[in-house]
Every structure is written in structure tokens, then in C-alpha cells.
């Protein structure tokens, strides 16, 4: 996804943030109430202090006379502290709940879109979006939204108190207050653009870092690690420049806010001072207004401080909105039930065009007969994986149709259809966890006996014996701790364990030694029993294990060979 730059995308970002306020409306209402109550208690607190000082200074009152005025003050301070704490806890809860909901939604969307539709996004960029991007939303909901409400409620409330006390001070507050939001809005537009740029740099840097880590071996071997590290360094420098621009803007706006707020307080103080001297205003009243004046500007200044939270959230919301609004594969109007038994699959003049000019399959017609092993063969780029991409529902056919027992593939609900498929991709992924955890992905309620049988079925008994804790052996991320061939054997056992009538194997013997390959090929008929098998194969031995061979060339079927006898 590109950085959110156009006005439409900026609007989508703001809409995205607003829509989510609704989901935390209740806790945020409580936050506003607690904060407003906390601010309201300031009035009796300062009122009592002003009265006590007035009596002490001008009426010579002793501690006995002042005691009833001062006694409630500590209780008011404690109560205000309690309310501040409560508002903070509630605000943090609201922020956390939005983050959780957005992360769940983004993760679900990524799963629903699948690898082909997500293809434009570098993994690092998506990772940054899920982690830092969602994190940036927190302060918007836990700080900015409450600050915005308080910036309206408290000044209005205080004006209602100050006007009856002294209309002149009321007018000064009323006139100077709008200058702060006005100035904020003026610099806001520039800050928004800078924040989006900063975010785009961060996503780019994430992508480069991930590539650097994933490709470390290749880069070291080609002596290119330094060049790549240099590229990361350059991007980090660009990120620093973008960040400094954001900070400069933040400091500039803070300076302006402080200036206007201080000016307002100073103006109020000077006018109160003159009128105190002239005897036009009582001391108690003047002092109370003077104590309240900074509190009048405080929520507005706080809003200015929290404004960068909005900018930061807007910087990532555009990308989150684009991801969450990306069109999902259309669900069938009248879903069909996918087959329970080995199906016959027909590709009927199927075309897959990933993007204009990027053709994976071109009017390809072939059949995978029910219960038999069909090999898709052909040179690299011929369209073999594209056929699998279509079967797995990661992309829809651009033209033509795939039928499963005569029913169009598009009439199945994707999840239900995928539940009927056992798949071993070219580079199978193993997750951090035990071997058993990885096997159970294929069949969640498989018991240890079934798992051992599955390992035996793919000729992996020797591997199982060599693992220090057998099925309970812990694996690192992406099967770290296993060789490529060992990881493939576990992925094959995972597919063997899955009770699915369609088995798709993408070059199953890749990275296996001769002995393991022979064991796997011996096990293949048992593995394939009762299933329709699609085998992508390059190696002659693997191709030989198939009963039918469909040769693809440049996305088209070049030949179909049937085993005789
Ligand atoms: N996600 C994608 N986006 C754009 N083009 C793609 C994508 N995946 C594959 N292609 C293109 O589609 C064509 C067929 O690729 P495919 O991966 O299906 O070939 P293959 O026969 O499986 O090759 P190999 O044996 O190397 O795996 C290629 O020209 C490839 O560049």
C-alpha cells in the first residue's frame, strides 16, 4: 500500500479513526465525566483557598477562624487525584481495547486476503503496520479524544464561573482561547503531511531490515551485506530527517500554545492588579480568578500537546483503512458443500492474470481424475504454482472455470473448501512450538499414535527417532533446528495426518536425500489412497510416481500423458 497522500485517503484515515471512537464511546464518556468532575472540584478548592487568604490577610483571622475553610481542601485534593487516576485507567483501557480490536481485524483481513492479494505489501511493512502502526492509535483514543472533550468542557464551565465574578476577565479568556485551536489547526495540515512521510519511512525501513535479516546468508555470500546495510543506513538517515521535521513542528506548535496561554494569563493578571489597586475588585474575587485563569488554558495547552497523537494516528490510519477496506473475495450467493470424497477436478480454459501482462495460466484445460495422482510438470514459470494458487482460492480465475465434481470452485465457501485440502508448499512453514504442535495444525485432535503413524507414512521414522524429545521436541521459528529436508518430512506428515480428500504436493522430494526420497516415493501410494493428488514435480523419480502427467508451458497445456496399464 502506498502512503496515504491524496485528500481521499486522508479523509479515509480520519473516517477510520472516527468510526472506532464509537466502539469505545462508553468508557470515553466515563473518562470525560471523571475529568470534568475533577476540574469542577477545582472551583471549591480554589474558592476556599482564596477566602482563607482573604480573611488571613485583610481580616486578621487566626487559625481557629480559618480552620473550617482549610479543612476540606486536603479532601478535595485527594478526591481530584482519585478522579484523575480513574480517568487515566479508563482511558488506557479504551486505548487498549481499540488496539486489540484493530489488530484482530487486521490479522483476520490479512488471512482472508491471502498471499496473492497482499502481494504488494512487503512483509516488513505489514509487520510495522501491525505493531507500531496499531500502537500509534493508542494515544489517539487514550489521550487525544479525552483531551479534545476536556478542551471544550472545562473552558466553557470556567467561563460560566468567571463571567458572573468579573465580566472583564471573562471577555479576556473568551477572546484569547480560540487563538490556541486556530493556531493548532493552521499548523496541523503541515504536521499531518510530515507524519505520513515519517510513517512511510518507518515502513520502508522495516521492510529493508526484514530483508536484511532473512537474506543474511545470501547477502554475506555475495559480499552484499555491506551494501544492504548501507541502504538501511540511508533509510535510517531519511527516517531521522523525517522525525526531526515532525519534532520541529511539534516544538513550534508547543511554543505558540505556551505563548498564547501565558499572554492570556498575564493580561488577566495585569487587569486584575490595576482594579485591585483602584479598589474596583475585591481581593478574594480577584485571587480566585487569577487562580482559575491558568486552569482555563491548561486543557487547551494539553490538547496542543496531545495533537501530535492525532497526527501520528492519522499517519498510520490511512494504511490500516486501506488494508481493512481492501475487497475480499466474493462469497458465493448460494454456497455449495465441498466434496467429502476424492473429487474430480476440471480446469476449463482457465486464465490467471495477476496484473496486466503478468499471466500465470492462459486458457489451460486439464483434468485431475478422482482418486488418482496427477503430476503437473514443465519448466520454471510455466504456471504450475499458479494452478495451485487458484485451487487454494488465493486468487480467482480471470477467465474460464475450475469445477470440482462438476460444481464451480467459486460456489464453495473458501474456509470450507480449504478444509478439504492437505497442502505441502514449495517451502513449507513450521511454527515455533513442538513437532506435535506443528503436526496438529493438519488435524487438531490427532493423538500421538496417529502422529507417529503419519510420520511413518511419509518415511520419517528415522527422523522421529533422532529427535531428542520425539514429538515433544521444540522447534524454533520457521522450524529452526531442523534441516530443510527434515522440515519437509514433518510438513508431509502434517499433510498425511489431515483427513482431506485433495492432496497437493509441491515438489515433495525437494531437499530430501536419496534414501528419504526413495522412502517417500514408496509411501506415496498409501498417502494418496482415497485422495485426488496434484503433484508438482521436477525430478524424474517423482514424476514417475504419478499416474498422469500434464505438461504446462508458458501457462498453457502442452501435453497430457497417461500411464498405460
Ligand atoms: N504473485 C504473482 N504476481 C505476479 N506474477 C506472478 C505471481 N506468481 C507468479 N507469477 C508469474 O506467473 C508465471 C507463472 O508462475 P508460476 O509460479 O505459476 O510458475 P511455476 O511453473 O510454478 O514455476 P516454478 O517451477 O519455478 O515454481 C510466471 O511468469 C510468474 O512470473
From TrEMBL:
Task: Give the NCBIfam families listed for this entry.
Answer: CydD (TIGR02857)
Check the record and name the InterPro entries matching this protein: AAA+_ATPase, ABC1_TM_dom, ABC1_TM_sf, ABC_transporter-like_ATP-bd, ABC_transporter-like_CS, ABC_transptr_CydD, P-loop_NTPase, Type_1_exporter
According to UniProt, the name of this protein is Thiol reductant ABC exporter subunit CydD
| Highest taxon, organism lineage | Bacteria
Coiled-coil region(s): none
Enumerate the subcellular locations listed in this protein's record, separating them with semicolons: Cell membrane
Q: From what organism does this protein derive?
A: Phaeospirillum tilakii
Xref: CDD domains: ABC_6TM_AarD_CydD
Q: Which residues cross the membrane?
A: 28-53, 65-90, 147-165, 171-191, 250-274
Q: Which residues form the signal peptide?
A: none
